[in-house]
Amino acid sequence: xxxxxxxxxxxxxxxxxxxxxxGTFSTFVEADEERNVLxxxxxxxxxxxxxxxxxxxxxxxxxNSLLKTKEKKIEKKERxxxxxxxxxxx
Length: 90
Known about the structure:
The protein has helices at residues 2-9, 28-38, 65-89; strands spanning 20-25, 44-51, 56-63. A three-stranded antiparallel β-sheet has the order 1-3-2. The model has no long low-confidence stretch (mean pLDDT 80). The chain has one domain. The longest helix has 25 residues, at 65-89. The chain is built from three helices and three strands. By secondary structure, it is an alpha+beta fold.
């Protein structure tokens, strides 16, 4: 029920988790070459999607969501440590 309410309110996923189109290719071999080039960057997730209606393949990428959650956890811990330090000084 909560999910339905969010959809009605028009809430969307954060932009950082959305896939960005890198390009469209007529063959899978071409798309796979582009995917291999992009996958050298370990901070990215890359995928190839087949477009049946156009008989083509698209390559999509996004920042790795696992790395982002790790960064958030580290920031959270750092804030907690700072808070403890300030409480000890009082």
